[in-house]
């Protein structure tokens, strides 16, 4: 099981408790071993003159300490707990990145819309997968693979113009940063809904897209 705090839906990021417990290495291994998610190590934070900066060395890095190191990161991703342990032993502070389009896709929405959608989904008693909350005030809903290809059409069928909604689906060729990965001073990625045995089976995007699109429409 993952050693993280229970999470409480709410309107403010401060209502999401901090994760506690295991190291990045052990957490990455557990993602591979218990959830069967592919994982790969990203960049990490380095202290330079008392300031944490990205290991990539770029002064204006947009995702300090939380992006792929290599252009061929997709070939590096592994579902083997043994290989994951070996990779993080080489760099124990590396961020934990999960490729989308394999065991899951992710629907990415603004935090305010995400909390609104969560509340509506709970009233509808929908089955949800894990949901992350990023320091960039975004929420990512894990759904079955294939969502990236069909979400635009699903949104159109609901009567929304895709370009007008701040809703992005991450599929093959993309990735998400997993808790407790930290974006320098911006803070760490956290679970809005943590991985549990109950949400091992992910929902189809079609089940969640209506409340997500509605919430994004309200959030414009």
Principal-axes shape call = globular
Rg, nearest Å: 17 Å
State the total count of DSSP E strands: 12
User: What is the helix tally?
Assistant: 6
The biggest beta sheet, please? 5 strands, antiparallel
Distance between the termini: 38 Å
Mean pLDDT: 89
The portion of residues forming beta strands comes to 15-25%
Considering DSSP H and I runs of 4 or more, what fraction of the residues is helical? 25-40%
Helix-strand pattern: HEEEHHEEHEEHEEEEEH
The main sheet orders its strands as: 8-5-7-6-12
Q: Which ranges are low-confidence, i.e. pLDDT below 50, for 5 or more consecutive residues?
A: 1-19
Class per helix and strand makeup: alpha+beta
Model description:
By secondary structure, the protein is an alpha+beta fold. Helices cover 29% and strands 20% of the residues. The chain has helices spanning 24-34, 73-76, 81-90, 111-123, 147-157, 205-218, and strands spanning 40-41, 45-48, 51-54, 96-99, 105-110, 131-133, 138-143, 168-170, 175-177, 182-183, 187-188, 190-193. The strands form four sheets. Strands 8-5-7-6-12 form a five-stranded antiparallel beta sheet. A hairpin with a 4-residue loop joins strand 6 and strand 7 (138-143). Helix 1 packs antiparallel against helix 3, helix 4 (111-123) packs across helix 6 and helix 5 (147-157) crosses helix 6. It is globular and about 50 Å long. Mean pLDDT is 89; it is low at 1-19.
């Amino acid at each position: 099981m993952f050693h993280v705090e229970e999470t409480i839906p709410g309107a403010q990021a401060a209502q999401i408790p901090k994760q506690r417990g295991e190291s990045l290495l052990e957490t990455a291994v557990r993602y591979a071993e218990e959830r069967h998610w592919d994982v790969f190590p990203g960049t990490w934070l380095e202290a330079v003159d008392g300031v944490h900066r990205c290991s990539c060395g770029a002064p204006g890095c947009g995702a300090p300490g939380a992006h792929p190191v290599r252009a061929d990161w997709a070939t590096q991703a592994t579902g083997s707990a043994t290989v994951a342990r070996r990779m993080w032993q080489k760099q124990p502070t590396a961020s934990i990145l999960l490729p989308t389009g394999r065991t899951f896709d992710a629907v990415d929405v603004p935090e305010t819309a995400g909390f609104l959608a969560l509340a509506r989904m709970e009233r509808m008693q929908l089955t949800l997968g894990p949901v992350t909350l990023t320091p960039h005030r975004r929420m990512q809903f894990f759904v079955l693979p294939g969502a990236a290809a069909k979400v635009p059409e699903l949104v159109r069928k609901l009567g929304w113009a895709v370009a007008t909604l701040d809703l992005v689906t991450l599929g093959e060729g993309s990735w998400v940063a997993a808790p407790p990965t930290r974006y320098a001073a911006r803070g760490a990625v956290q679970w809005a809904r943590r991985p549990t045995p109950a949400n091992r089976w992910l929902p189809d995007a079609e089940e969640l897209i209506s409340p997500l699109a509605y919430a994004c429409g309200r959030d414009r």
